[in-house]
Amino acid sequence: METTRKQPLAVAVVALARCAAAGAGLAVRGRIHHPRTDVGVRLAFPGGRTSWVYRETVVERPPAREPCVLLVEFRLRGVRGRGHAWFRAESWLNLPLFVGFPGLLTKWWVAADDDGVYRGLYEYDGAGRADGYARSLAWVLGLVSVRGSVRHEVVPGARRSDVVGPAGPGGVRPVRLPVPGAAAGAAR
Fold it and tell me: What is the pTM of this model?
């Protein structure tokens, strides 16, 4: 995974504003859900780091015509110890920054691993949409993250079930990127 190149600032600001407006509409219509079924699932990422899903968000939308998976990762600047619990609690406030982006279907919010790296594992409709979201989000994450730590990968043609394998030893589920048989990651 490479460091995410940001959208031009004006493009990102417009995209984030549209996202917030669309997200408000989704919320008013009751189309945003937070099932707890997968909360607590342990994941092993490429490179050997493990963590767990602390929240899931699902947006009611038609099924994906162009499914893809997006993995975003970042390391918060200056957050240690109890600061991680505070971040997980306050991250509800971040919903307007992503839930209204076109194409978003699901997000697993993944807690920081032992190196302090947080992740979001998303299902999207459209690799270009997922990439655009990640490149817009990079402006916001860049304000609070260690320089160069915001990275993403898009796996076109994949669903979360293609990327996240069955539980192995200790109940940990491996995350495999890129997925064999799926097209390689999108341009950054």
Answer: 0.89
